[in-house]
Amino acid sequence: MYDDVAYEEREYDGGKFATVELTGKPFDEALREAVLKLLKYVGGSNDQGAGMGMMAPVCTTVFPGQDGSLQQKVKVLLRIPSQFQASPPLPSDEGIQIEEREGMTVYSTQFGGYAKEVDYISYAAKLTSTLGNEAAFHEDFYFCNGYDPPMKPYGRRNEVWLLKK
Length: 165
Hints:
By secondary structure, the protein is α+β, with helices and mostly antiparallel strands. It has helices at residues 27-42, 117-131; strands at residues 8-12, 15-23, 58-64, 70-79, 96-101, 104-111, 142-146, 158-163. A hairpin with a 5-residue loop joins strand 3 and strand 4. The longest helix has 16 residues, at 27-42. The mean pLDDT is 95.
């Protein structure tokens, strides 16, 4: 059905993340809104007025329906930089939560361009197909990751992660 895609198994450390959860909006619109909130937070819109610098990737948890399309619910995560992990600044925006997350192992595939909902769905389907019955992973959600600022036109890096069971 799909050509196999290249993938790798990768481990990520746990830690504290700034998260924004949005429902009732299409993926691309929800992601844009959530990323703006997180950029303001790391840019200094917090109780310490601390500019924390940008961490990559912006990681978005999505919830596919039976047909593969995405439900109108996203949770966007941004890892808080190391020097702020012990006591992260409190967000000025109450729509942002600070969350402690466990380390995780993912199956990851990479692609370029300005990624939209259709691209993430397509690569998630390809990765799922490639893994087949070889690997156990969570099927009720997956992660869509963007590594680059909007102003970067070339050499963009996007990834889909399936969480290993």
